[in-house]
Design goal:
The chain has 2 domains: about 1-90, 434 Repressor (Amino-terminal Domain) (Orthogonal Bundle), CATH 1.10.260; about 140-170 and about 200-285, no CATH class. It has 9 helices and 10 strands. It has helices at about 1-10, 15-25, 30-35, 40-50, 60-70, 75-85, 110-135, 175-180, 195-200; strands at about 165, 210-215, 220-225, 230-235, 240-245, 250-255, 260-265, 265-270, 275, 280-285. The termini are far apart.
């Protein structure tokens, strides 16, 4: 009997509630997911509750579900297919009164037609314009795929506010280029390291601190600098690393914190004392 009730509950669960469950699993709050998909918290809550009457219209609801699914790296098509079965009927457009046998004075006929055409034009143009505005808003930034190594960006090339630097892992069997060049001749001088190699050291620009994050599993991270400016915010795939530089103190929010290791200016930081549930919140001086 319990299995039958659980099955019925799963079948009656709408796409909004499924998105809410996945958001909580990834350690994201309503405010954080709203910032990613450009929605107010009240709109996110209405969408997760499958309360479509509180949202602008069916066209916008479809776009909200699609963007929400992409931000969580889910396939939106099954959710959209289920959404079509739950959307309320479109609100009927304004119905014009029946004008048969209603007398009009000859002098006001043209003015009445002009206002009617203007009203019809507004009814057509306004929904289309709103849809275009929502459609052209940028989607959430995609995390890099776990199998692709990204080049190291030297700290000197970062902006004053601090930017994220992706650090790839070198294969255990690969030898440095300088060692390969020196192999043919035992007495050949070792070439000096290039300027690009020297610039890739972990030390940041004067006044900036360095945060290194290694992800065992998927985790969403947001970092703000001393001015409260967001210098890093994205969903990171398991098996990747990120190095972020900014002016301290740095405020961090780390989702799925038990699967993340953190170093601050080369020193390890234990996230356990700052973790509540699956999310760690801390400030690095």
């Amino acid at each position: 009997m319990d299995r039958h009730e659980d099955k019925e509950a799963l079948e009656t669960q709408g796409p909004g509630r499924r998105l809410a469950d996945e958001r909580r699993r990834q350690g994201l709050s309503v405010v954080e997911i709203g910032r990613l998909i450009k929605l107010a918290p009240r709109q996110v809550e209405a969408l997760e509750a499958d309360d479509y009457e509180r949202l602008p219209g069916n066209t916008f609801v479809r776009g909200f579900v699609r963007n929400y699914a992409k931000a969580l790296r889910l396939d939106p098509e099954p959710l959209l297919a289920e959404l079509e079965q739950r959307l309320p009927p479109e609100r009927p457009s304004a119905i014009l009164p029946h004008t048969e046998n209603i007398p009009f004075s000859p002098g006001h006929g043209e003015g009445w037609r002009r206002y009617l055409l203007l009203a019809l034009l507004v009814l057509l143009v306004v929904p289309w314009a709103l849809y275009e505005v929502y459609r052209q808003q940028p989607a959430a930034p995609a995390a890099p795929s776990p199998g692709v190594a990204l080049p190291i960006v030297p700290p000197s090339a970062t902006k004053p506010g601090g930017t994220a630097v992706a650090v790839p892992e070198r294969a255990s069997g690969a030898a440095p280029a300088s060692d390969q060049a020196a192999a043919p001749g035992a007495g050949a001088p070792v070439p000096a390291p290039s300027a690009a190699h020297q610039a890739a050291s972990p030390a940041g620009a004067p006044g900036q601190a360095s945060v290194r994050l290694a992800f065992k599993k998927d985790s969403w991270v947001e970092i703000k600098d001393r001015e409260g400016k967001i210098v890093f915010a994205q969903l990171n795939k398991g098996g990747t690393e990120q190095v972020v530089q900014g002016v301290p103190p740095l405020s961090l929010v780390v989702g799925n914190a038990t699967q993340v290791t953190l170093e601050y200016n080369g020193k390890p930081v234990d996230l356990a004392p700052y973790t509540r549930g699956e999310v760690a919140r801390l400030t690095l001086e």
